[in-house]
Design brief:
Blueprint (H helix, E strand, L loop, with lengths): L2 H7 L12 H10 L2 H12 L1 H6 L5 H8 L3 H13 L3 E5 L2 E4 L14 H5 L6 H5 L4 H7 L4 H5 L3 H6 L2 H11 L3 H9 L8 E5 L5 H9 L4 E6 L1 H13 L6 E5 L12 E5 L7 H14 L5 E6 L9 H14 L6 H9 L3 E8 L5 E7 L7
Helix pairs in contact: 3-6, 5-6, 13-14
Length: 358
């Protein structure tokens, strides 16, 4: 190896630091990729739970996780340096308060969100294609995995189940949204893309005269059918396998789109709106539940999610005016907008066309 080659291979791959320059140090922290992926690797391997069980050495942990012992030791050393682990005795690791957040039983379900084999954690791997997305405006996920996000989920039942389970962690949003709208005037509600049925169950339990229909992809629809049966709601609720883009069950009073539209670009979102409007009974409504971006403000959660939605599925986060304009393209008018205690908003849109004109 030549001296030139050696010099090149020993350069540290982080921005140079200037003593006393906090801006460079902050940029270095913001651009670090090793630590975020080290934490995701630990979550995927379930290290926090194994250490809590008393398996504390790299060799023993490598055997349980079918990993390379030397590589795993290096990972754990970095996690210790980052504050998720500590090493009370040489070669023996313990979890810190920060590391305990990666336990499988933690209420935040952080481990499941970060699991690189799971439905959501896998999408983190597509972030490496962000530059391609910025240049093309198209999702990078298909380039990374050879299929769209939804096709990829459908091809792997285990991954799809993990995604459905994580979506249920938004129960507080679901409950708040269900409680923030007066469903009593609607005789029949159709939950379009209703997942496992948590929202519809909440609505039907609170309104005993109401009937419901849930529309979902076949695998999730079957799960929803079981959960609605467990809630003793099959006499008032039916489950219909299908997509947002198929003709929807017609004649209902309210069509609910709960955290659906941000998964789609404007053209496809307008098509979903249009399907709901076309199916609605005279004087029917489309009820949208989403977390809104604030007009003119750069909110970190919104800008990060906006990029993630674009990169993964081609979707976007929207402001109230964005939703108003999108609905107007299919002749829907915004009637009400109510923010729930959890930060999500419930938007109600009225159909403007007589049924014969649709």
């Amino acid at each position: 190896m030549s001296m030139t080659t050696s010099a090149r291979t020993t350069q540290t791959p982080v921005p140079p630091t200037t003593p006393g320059d906090p801006t460079v140090a902050r940029l270095a922290a913001l651009t670090d990729l090793v630590t975020p992926y080290a934490i995701r690797a630990a979550a995927t391997l379930g290290l926090a739970d194994l250490i809590a069980e008393g398996i504390t050495t790299a060799d023993a942990l490598a055997e349980r996780t079918r990993s390379d012992a030397d590589a795993l030791r290096r990972l754990m050393d970095h996690l210790a340096a980052s504050g998720l682990l500590e090493e009370p005795d040489p070669g023996c690791y313990a979890i810190t308060d920060l590391g305990r957040v990666l336990r499988d039983d933690h209420p935040a379900r952080t481990r499941a969100w970060l699991d690189l084999d799971g439905g959501m954690g896998r999408s983190d791997l597509a972030l490496s294609g962000l530059l391609t997305t910025i240049r093309t405006g198209e999702p990078a996920y298909p380039d990374r995995f050879g299929a769209s996000f939804w096709e990829d989920l459908a091809a792997n039942p285990t991954r799809a189940a993990s995604f459905d389970t994580l979506m249920e962690t938004h129960l507080a949003n679901v409950e708040a949204a269900a409680d923030s709208y007066d469903w009593s005037s609607a005789g029949h509600v159709v939950d379009v893309g209703g997942g496992s049925g948590k929202l519809l169950t909440r609505i039907l339990n609170a309104n005993r005269e109401l009937r419901g229909t849930l529309v979902e992809l076949p695998g999730t629809a079957e799960n929803a059918r079981r959960q609605l049966a467990d809630a003793s709601l099959t006499d008032r609720c039916t489950v219909v396998p299908g997509t947002f883009f198929d003709p929807l069950p017609s004649g209902a009073d309210a069509y609910v789109l709960s955290f659906v539209l941000h998964d789609w670009n404007d053209r496809r979102a307008a098509q979903i709106f249009d399907r709901c409007a076309a199916a609605a009974a005279p004087h029917g409504h489309v009820v949208v539940i989403e977390r809104l971006r604030e007009e003119g403000m750069k909110q970190p959660w919104a800008t990060a999610m906006d990029l993630r939605m674009l990169l993964t599925v081609g979707g976007r986060e929207r402001t109230l005016d964005d939703f108003r304009a999108l609905a107007a393209t299919v002749n829907l008018t915004l009637n009400t907008a109510v923010q729930t205690p959890t930060g999500a908003s419930v938007l109600t849109f009225a159909t403007n066309q007589p049924p014969g004109d649709r």
